[in-house]
Structure to design on (183 residues):
């Protein structure tokens, strides 16, 4: 896998959605590395990408409450197990489940398997609450998709906090999700 700097030289075979993510990052003056790859639908596939990016690959989960009235985008390390009861307890909300794909498309302009913090640039109404596991913030870099799962980006965590989030207007809730203890 080759780590390129910045956006692709050609827009051929790139979607408007992906190019919009690059436009957003470029407008903010954010440097980023990029790896192009086959669709990455699972965290297992992302392990090789993780090694090439040398960043915390994030599991990005689009979630909703039982009533379907509140929506969350959870960024957590890809190798950390997700247990809804742990997150629900920290957020003080009743049972969470995966949000419907049509709502993800409407609010974040992306589809399951491609969820990304960059989708928040489309959430002008602040309908989605960003939730970040503290381990993501502890790393120097994090990895995410540019709203498509055929490329992965390496972005500095400082740029996330200092540029991306202020540009989207989203204030994150920071959680501390437990890791499984190995006995």
């Amino acid at each position: 896998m080759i780590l390129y700097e910045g956006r692709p030289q050609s827009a051929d075979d790139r979607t408007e959605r992906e190019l919009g993510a690059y436009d957003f990052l470029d407008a903010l003056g954010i440097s980023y590395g990029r790896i192009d790859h086959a669709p990455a639908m699972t965290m297992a596939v992302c392990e090789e990408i993780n090694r090439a990016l040398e960043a915390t690959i994030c599991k990005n989960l689009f979630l909703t409450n039982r009533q379907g009235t509140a929506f969350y985008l959870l960024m957590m390390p890809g190798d950390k197990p997700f247990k809804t009861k742990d997150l629900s307890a920290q957020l003080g909300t009743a049972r969470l489940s995966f949000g419907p794909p049509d709502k993800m498309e409407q609010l974040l302009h992306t589809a399951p398997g491609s969820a990304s913090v960059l989708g928040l640039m489309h959430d002008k109404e602040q309908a989605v609450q960003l939730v970040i596991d503290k381990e993501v913030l502890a790393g120097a870099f994090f990895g995410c998709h540019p709203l498509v799962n055929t490329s992965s980006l390496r972005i500095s965590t400082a740029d996330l906090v200092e540029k991306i989030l202020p540009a989207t207007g989203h204030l994150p809730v920071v959680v501390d999700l437990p890791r499984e203890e190995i006995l």
About this structure: The chain has a mean pLDDT of 91. DSSP finds six helices and nine strands in the chain.
